[in-house]
Amino acid sequence: MAKIPTEIPSLKLNDGTSIPILGYGTGTAWYKSGDDGSIDRKVVEGVKSAIKLGYYHLDGAEVYNTERELGIAIKESKVPRERLYVTTKVLPNIKDIPKAIDMSLEKLQMDYVDLYLIHAPFFASSERELQSAWAAMESVRKSGKARSIGVSNYLEKDLAATLATAAVPPSINQIEYHPYLQHGNLLEYQTTQTIAASAYGALTAVTKAKPGPVDDVMGQLAKKYYVSEGEIALRWVMDQGVVAITTSGKEERLSDYLRAMTFSLTPREVKEISDAGAEKHFRGFWQAKFDNNDRS
After folding, report:
1. pTM to 2 decimals?
2. Which listed residue (24, 55, 64, 200) is catalytic?
């Protein structure tokens, strides 16, 4: 396995900060069902491997129950804090966001995170609840405990409700995004509001949603660029100006994903994948919150 000598470029957010366009997630591959205070060294070593390869954008969440491991891995990596971009998210403790960020920072062994997200809008039964939570997020940003604030899994209606009373708009909305879940006009709406997008589940079309209508075009492009279909899937996301979050417990696979930094798809190729993906619908996360044919 050779380390691919390439840097991960960044995307500028509406608050003036910048986020690396490829990040390493500590959820799917490393998710822990409970937090009893014990440390999973496999998670620690996995994160350290990612950092060693050059994944300085690290994506966590309180619900993953891996914030302690993420903090230990960062300490043991010896990489200066200011070189890293650390994200975490609030959901279980959404009713007390100021307390939630303090708990996360304690576990992470940090004074601040680069990005703090509301993990999902499903806690709210009214627009007022969304707006109240966002006001609490704004206070976290003002305190300096988060340099940027944003949301995750929000639809257009959730963003519109939040923006109606926001003093500071969300900097980003992290969503499940891949060729089989393109969310209609959501990304276009976010562009009009200068809210960036971040994608989790970017590899879905070439992993758990196979077989499907994008298989042929993904395969052809993989041969053209001498990469795997996984790198094509990541490139499809990033070539639309969307941040990609990926994960793996295998160092070799993470190294391979960095090849996505060495080429770009043409606009026509991006469209070919999008058009083929529109022929199928597949949602890998939060299925219980949506009807089977709901593509929003």
Report:
1. 0.94
2. 64
